[in-house]
Amino acid sequence: xxxxxxxxxxxxxxxxxxxxxxxxxxxxxxxxxxxxxxxxxxxxxxxxxxxxxxxxxxxxxxxxxxxxxxxxxxxxxxxxxxxxxxxxxxxxxxxxxxxxxxxxxxxxxxxxxxxxxxxxxxxxxxxxxxxxxxxxxxxxxxxxxxxxxxxxxxxxxxxxxxxxxxxxxxxxxxxxxxxxxxxxxxxxxxxxxxxxxxxxxxxxxxxxxxxxxxxxxxxxxxxxxxxxx
Length: 229
Hints:
This protein has about 230 residues and is an alpha+beta fold. It is about 30% helix and about 35% strand. The protein starts with 9 loop residues before the first strand and ends with a strand.
């Protein structure tokens, strides 16, 4: 049976690029949190493997991740800490993170907390708080974006006119996808909410900006990163 496509059209995730790291210290134990945007379980496991090599002398490399637009893949690992004191609170910090007031939609994010034991036992409650706060503190500082499924519409314009049109469209608040290039024309690609009214409004704007010389051709949908307001 063919898997149904998700009905989710937007969620929040980490900005693409390098890992985000944050460290706290509690009773001489160091908790180094590393966040990475990951789209698959394999990528999440690669993060753990890489940090085991980098921090090879640390006692614990606890992990949690939530994946998919519907957040239907959720895993955690205590990595030697008492059961339920590390991975579970880390996962809860990801899943219950409010990205806007009342909205918990963070996904495609992996968190690993590397712990260097400082010689003072924290107890079960102390460990839960430490791992939860470590991930929460990192998320407070991490760069986030909206990941939106948008309709891609193309407009072909002469190379000489493309730069100005693109700037005008960006200034008007349109999200631009990756530009394409032909022999004679530049192919500007707009990422637009998949609603007839939004597509019609974008078409009218392109017609207006080009004095009727260019229009939009609706294509398929793609997941696009959109900066948070």
